[in-house]
Automatic annotation (TrEMBL):
Keyword Membrane assigned: no
Cleaved signal peptide residues: 1-30
Lineage: Bacteria, Pseudomonadati, Pseudomonadota, Alphaproteobacteria, Sphingomonadales
Keywords, ordered alphabetically: Isomerase, Rotamase, Signal
Annotated SUPFAM superfamilies: FKBP-like, Triger factor/SurA peptide-binding domain-like
UniProt GO MF annotations: peptidyl-prolyl cis-trans isomerase activity
Every PpiC domain range: 203-300
PANTHER family: CHAPERONE SURA (PTHR47637)
InterPro entries in the record: OMP_Chaperone_SurA, PPIase_dom_sf, PPIase_PpiC, Trigger_fact/SurA_dom_sf
Protein name: Parvulin-like PPIase
Organism: Pontixanthobacter luteolus
Length: 451
């Protein structure tokens, strides 16, 4: 496994510590608000003259938060965990922005840990180590030492990851004590939601990831440039989950930007018009919206209250040929032509073994859920009748093969969420909104010194 992919998996694993993502984009609250009106509330003059010298590219990397020191090493180790989840080396300007965002996240994390301690919520070393071991088991097969070595190899440390785990556990515990018990969703409200879903049965809903960056009239151009740089890094292989966790200003940052399943009317118009044109795995942005910019990633889409064909179980036979090392192009082409003609002559799955034996091909039978196959093959297979095959695919190095459909068990029509499911979902949405205000209050009351 590549280190970059592993770094992304570790960050994705950490996202599961947070509460479920709200299915409504949080920045919708900013619709209709302009940056200028926000600044007018503060009575800021139109012509601002800064007193003293200021270089926006020079920022200190350490801070003291209510007496707790965040060191340059803390920032370095956390930055290394983020950059390891990206393909390639970050350019200097991008790395500078990442480090400043990491420092802001460390400040928030420190405030969360301090607040938990003030409220006598103890996050024990045992809890942190248990979660750390779970991540090790997911990525290294129970070998905690292997994950230790990996973190050190990328310039991070086990201590840095454990501190992040402690911060997320502390915040989750605070929300469960101070917010969750006071959230109420009526059954009547949920029944109305169920009626609406039934009325919209068969229409599409989308599972989206989002990175939201707020902007005002004064910093609009700078924020747009920052968003464009993030998009460039994502297109070059950067981890969407990692960048969402570090840069997004929506509450869903803690879960890697995952908005959950949403319908187009739930999104701002600017986002819904983009989402409806996207295919799973596609990235778009930066998209201007009232209050800032969004970067969208379409994780998946489905039809409301309808079974997804990709959940069908397929019985397949893989028929394949391989090539000897050093085979000439002409010989390989001739062998592929013989293979293609032989496959075309097969009279269904019962004929596969005998025909394959005659041309020296191998046959392997298996059952698999359609969505577990590469996306390019899913549509092809789901459109086949029993006994038909996909077009040949592969290469001289990997071998050439076809998949023959020998059976298909379609999924049952889904029954939709229960009342309890919807109550839990709406409660989580409201918890996340109050959590944002809670953290904002902690920031407002904090004493922070930058070194």
């Amino acid at each position: 496994m590549k280190l970059t992919k592993l770094g992304s998996k570790l960050l994705g694993g950490l996202a599961t510590l947070g509460l479920a993502a709200s299915p409504i984009a949080l920045q919708a609250q900013a619709i209709g608000q302009s940056g200028a009106s926000n600044s007018n509330v503060l009575n800021i003059p139109d012509n601002v003259v800064l007193m003293g010298q200021s270089d926006p590219n020079v920022r200190t990397a350490t801070a003291v938060v209510n007496g707790t020191v965040i060191t340059g090493t803390d920032v370095d180790h956390r930055t290394a965990l983020l950059t390891a989840a990206s393909e390639g080396e970050l350019p200097p300007e991008e790395l500078r922005r990442v480090r400043m965002q990491v420092l802001r996240n460390l400040i928030d994390e420190t405030l969360q840990i301090q607040e938990a301690a003030a409220q006598e919520i103890e996050i024990s070393d045992g809890q942190v180590n248990q979660r750390y071991q779970t991540l090790a088991a997911q990525n290294f097969g129970q070998q905690t030492e292997a994950m230790d070595q990996y973190l050190l190899s990328i310039g991070s440390s086990p201590a840095s990851l454990k501190r992040q785990i402690k911060g997320e556990l502390a915040w989750t515990s605070l929300l469960r004590r101070n917010i969750s018990p006071f959230i109420n969703v009526s059954e009547e409200e949920v029944r109305e939601e169920l009626k609406r879903m039934e009325a919209e049965k068969g229409t599409e809903e989308f599972r989206l990831g989002e990175i939201y960056l707020s902007a005002t009239a004064e910093n609009l151009e700078t924020v747009q440039q920052n968003a464009a740089q993030i998009v460039d890094q994502l297109r070059q292989g950067g981890s969407f989950v990692a960048y969402a966790r570090q840069f997004s200003e929506a509450s869903t940052a803690s879960v890697g930007g995952d908005l959950g399943w949403v319908r187009l009317p739930q999104l701002p118009r600017e986002l819904s018009s983009q989402a409806t044109q996207m295919q799973p795995g596609e990235l778009r942005g930066p998209i201007p919206i009232p209050g800032g910019f969004s970067i969208l990633f379409l994780i998946d889409k489905r039809q409301i209250l309808m079974a997804d064909p990709r959940d069908a179980t397929l019985s397949l036979k893989q028929i394949s040929i391989s090539f000897s090392p050093g085979v000439t192009e002409a010989s390989a082409a001739a062998k592929v032509e013989t293979f293609t003609n032989a496959v075309a002559s097969m009279r269904g799955c019962g004929d596969a073994e005998s025909v394959a034996a005659g041309i020296g091909a191998d046959v392997v039978s298996n059952e698999i859920v359609a969505r577990q196959l590469p996306e390019q093959l899913q549509a092809s297979l789901l459109n086949l009748q029993v006994g038909q095959t996909t077009p040949p695919f592969g290469s001289v190095n990997d071998g050439v093969r076809v998949l023959m459909l020998c059976g298909r068990d379609d999924p049952e029509t889904v029954g939709g969420p229960t009342i309890d499911d919807l109550i839990a979902q709406k409660e989580e949405e409201r918890i996340q909104k109050r959590a944002q205000r809670y953290l904002r209050d902690l920031r407002n009351d904090a004493y922070i010194e930058y070194n």
